[in-house]
């Protein structure tokens, strides 16, 4: 049986991209974001590949995601970016040797209720201006007191997150970095500031730890710095097939609402992928796909299981031909703009109908 939609993940691209990150930030240790099922790429195979490549730490959103990795016998350090929600979760996190990111005082209260023998590792997250998670910077002295009260705790470091790192001209990033450094002046412990955009575009954010996600999957978060130019290789190819090819007269409408009107007599291909697979319904006419290495273009609304494409530039296209939706030669970050979204959301939006294949696994 030929799968309708296949996501082929090249794990060697991930380890290659880890190498690119290490070259860009040679003095930083790398915490790789594998949350949200490794951005839809498959958390277990991705984490295994990164672990084999010597990543320093993996990062997930929550305990459940971390447990899935431990159950798959992944031994690498794992950080819980949102920390824990209860004493029970805290105890479990300690048992599983997870690093807990602590962003509020109620979480400290939870940790202080653990037995003093608990071998706890924690990061402290500071809000340097994004106003999502983190302690106010003015809390640093109080937090230093907390650490001093608990010499048995292992302190992994201070963390903050940048709000506008993907806008290289936005001075607020400089401001956030300066505020973070000033608040921590004299405070012992490693620092971590940069996500992918931070480490690619802001050299001053390449401190003790960097925390890339998207770049490891081979995408650039910065329109001004395409992934190819950075040496990043896309890890995923999303492919389907042509299941029908038809010719229509000028003026004929195609698909729901007849949104697309054929400007001339032309061939329309039907590809077996739709919004139930993760192909956003918001994609506009003109969104490119690749058939036989040439471009065809979305022509008509995305339906649940199918899309229709303008085949005028692929005269020899035939039923059964593979159709690349994104991947090498068709960067997901560029495709995403056709649905006014980001490659992050395209990847995370793939559904259970998509068949995943892995290659390039470490020996
Ligand atoms: C705290 C934190 N650090 C790092 C990352 C990785 O970000 P990116 O995928 O943009 O590199 C994320 C992702 O949202 C995050 O929330």
From TrEMBL:
Substrate binds at residues 132, 304. NCBIfam families: alr. Belongs to the alanine racemase family. InterPro entries: Ala_racemase (IPR000821), Ala_racemase/Decarboxylase_C (IPR009006), Ala_racemase_C (IPR011079), Ala_racemase_N (IPR001608), Ala_racemase_pyridoxalP-BS (IPR020622), PLP-binding_barrel (IPR029066). Pathway: Amino-acid biosynthesis; D-alanine biosynthesis; D-alanine from L-alanine: step 1/1. GO terms for cellular component: cytosol. Its EC number is 5.1.1.1. GO terms for molecular function: alanine racemase activity; pyridoxal phosphate binding. This is Alanine racemase. Its cofactor is pyridoxal 5'-phosphate. GO terms for biological process: D-alanine biosynthetic process. It comes from the Bacteria. The modification N6-(pyridoxal phosphate)lysine is found at residue 35. SMART domains: Ala_racemase_C. The active site is at 35 (proton acceptor), 256 (proton acceptor). It is an enzyme of class 5 (isomerase). It catalyses: L-alanine = D-alanine. Residues 235-359 form the Alanine racemase C-terminal domain.
């Amino acid at each position: 049986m030929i799968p309708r939609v296949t996501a082929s993940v090249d794990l060697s691209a991930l380890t290659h991209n880890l190498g690119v990150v290490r070259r860009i930030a040679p003095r930083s240790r790398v915490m790789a974001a594998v949350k949200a099922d490794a951005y839809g790429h498959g958390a277990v195979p991705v984490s295994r590949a990164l672990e084999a490549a010597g990543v320093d730490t993996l990062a997930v959103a929550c305990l459940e995601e971390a447990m899935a990795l431990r159950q798959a016998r992944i031994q690498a350090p794992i950080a819980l970016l949102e920390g824990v929600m209860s004493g029970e979760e805290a105890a479990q996190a300690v048992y599983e040797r997870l690093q807990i990111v602590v962003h509020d005082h109620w979480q400290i209260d939870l940790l202080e209720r653990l037995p003093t023998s608990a071998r706890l590792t924690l990061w402290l997250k500071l809000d340097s201006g994004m106003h999502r998670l983190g302690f106010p910077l003015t809390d640093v002295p109080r937090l230093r007191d907390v650490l001093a009260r608990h010499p048995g705790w292992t302190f992994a470091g201070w963390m903050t997150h940048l709000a506008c790192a993907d806008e290289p001209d936005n001075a607020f990033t400089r401001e956030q970095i300066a505020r973070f450094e000033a608040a921590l002046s004299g405070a012992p412990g490693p620092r971590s500031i940069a996500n992918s955009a931070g480490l690619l575009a802001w050299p001053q954010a390449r401190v003790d730890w960097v925390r890339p996600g998207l770049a490891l999957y081979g995408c650039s978060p910065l329109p001004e710095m395409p992934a190819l130019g950075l040496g990043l290789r896309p890890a995923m190819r999303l492919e389907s097939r042509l299941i029908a090819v038809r010719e229509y007269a000028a003026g004929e409408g195609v698909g729901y609402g007849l949104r697309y009107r054929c400007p001339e007599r032309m061939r329309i291909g039907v590809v077996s992928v739709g919004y139930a697979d993760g192909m956003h319904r918001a994609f506009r006419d003109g969104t490119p796909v690749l058939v036989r290495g040439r471009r065809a273009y979305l022509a008509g609304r995305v339906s649940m299981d199918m899309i229709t494409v303008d085949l005028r530039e692929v005269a020899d296209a035939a039923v059964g031909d593979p159709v690349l939706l994104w991947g090498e030669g068709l960067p997901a970050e560029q495709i995403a703009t056709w649905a006014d979204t980001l490659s992050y959301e395209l990847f995370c939006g793939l559904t259970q109908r998509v068949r995943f294949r892995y290659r390039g696994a470490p020996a």
